[in-house]
Design goal:
Layout: E1 2-10, H1 14-25, H2 29-37, E2 40-48, E3 51-58, H3 64-72, H4 75-84, E4 88-89, E5 101-102
Antiparallel strand pairs: 1-3, 1-4, 1-5, 2-3
């Protein structure tokens, strides 16, 4: 098992943040399937203010490259991602067209 942590910001608007959270109360079935089909075994998202923090646990064989390729070839995932951009904004250090940014672990007990 591998664990990854990622961060992303939401547009700092209480109405949009509430809408975003509503979408995540029960995500679309085809989106959940695309997540698990890619090798992600568990995913949690936390929010403080407009900052999001994601924890992903994956199978050892998981790769972000394979996940990106699968997503690019899935019209339902593309529809979901386009919808989510209404609510999300890239972190200042994100690369062009990058949403979630991989975080560096700096401490572990």
């Amino acid at each position: 098992m591998k664990r990854y942590t990622l961060a992303l910001d939401l547009v700092d608007d209480p109405i949009l943040i509430a809408e975003y959270e509503k979408y995540h109360e029960k995500i679309r079935e085809e989106i959940a399937k695309s997540i698990t089909d890619s090798g992600i075994t568990a995913m949690e998202i936390y929010r403080i203010g407009n900052r999001l923090f994601m924890i992903m646990e994956t199978e050892d064989e998981f790769s972000f490259e394979k996940k990106s390729e699968m997503d690019a070839n899935n019209p339902k995932v593309q529809e979901w991602e386009n919808l989510m951009w209404k609510y999300q904004q890239a972190l200042p250090m994100a690369k062009s067209n990058e949403k979630w940014v991989l975080m560096k672990q700096i401490f572990k007990l």
